[in-house]
Amino acid sequence: MTQLFKSKLPSYVIINDPSSQNKEVLRTPTPRINFPLDEETREIIRQLEEKFDGEENCGGLAAPQIGYSKRVIILEANDEELKKYREDFTDMLPKSIWINPSFKPVSSKKTTDWEACFSVDGLAGEVPRFTEIIYEAWTPEGEKVTGKAKGFLARLIQHEIDHLNGVLFIDYVPEDELVSR
Fold it and tell me: What's the pLDDT tens digit per position in 22-76?
């Protein structure tokens, strides 16, 4: 393989950090990925997973957050400790890598709760999200994944898919309602 990537993991792209490079990747919708996966996409998935595994408090990451315009997310919702702080944390999901994910709301009902993000430094805000969704994605092996999610897991999926569509949680929160964290 050619030297497409640095040996160390990429830094987070941070929209509100003047020194952060490649910020446009956070605001540009990602293209669909074709199967079978090419080597470049497999390497990006490897880096995304390694970055995710290195974080202590991380429910999900999307490829644009580490500088790649690829339609890939990684997420996990199976932390029993987190259930103590999120009463809507009812649906569990083991660590999963999803390619070309999408979702549809089950109804128009939304729930507002706090969100933060590695790509938005030092800020948090209350974001309205669909309470229950139906999702669809593919694994790196090309297997289709579908399901229904509600509460915190539905919020997590929507947050990560937003990254693939060039949307950040701060787009849902009036600037004067963002809080420092």
Answer: 999 999 999 999 999 999 999 999 999 999 999 988 899 999 999 999 999 999 9
Convert 17-53 to b/e letters by CB count within 10 Å (16 or more is b): eeebeebebbeeebeebeeebeeebeebbebbbebbe
Q: Which of 104, 180, 97 is nearest to 135 (CA)?
A: 104
Give the number of other Cβ atoms within 10 Å of residue 142's Cβ: 10
Measured from the Cβ of residue 70, the count of other Cβ atoms closer than 10 Å reads: 24
Domains of the chain, with CATH numbers?
23-180 (3.90.45.10)
Tens digits of residue pLDDT in 123-178: 999 999 999 999 999 999 999 999 999 999 999 999 999 999 999 999 999 999 99
Closest C-alpha among 111, 119, 112 to residue 173? 112
Which of 175, 45, 164, 150 has its CA nearest to residue 102? 164
Residue 177 appears among annotated catalytic residues: no
Q: Active-site residue among 39, 81, 160, 177? A: 160
Whether pLDDT at 3 is above 80: no
35, HSE (Cβ side, Cα atoms, 13 Å)? 12
Q: Do 165 and 157 contact (CB within 8 A), yes or no?
A: no
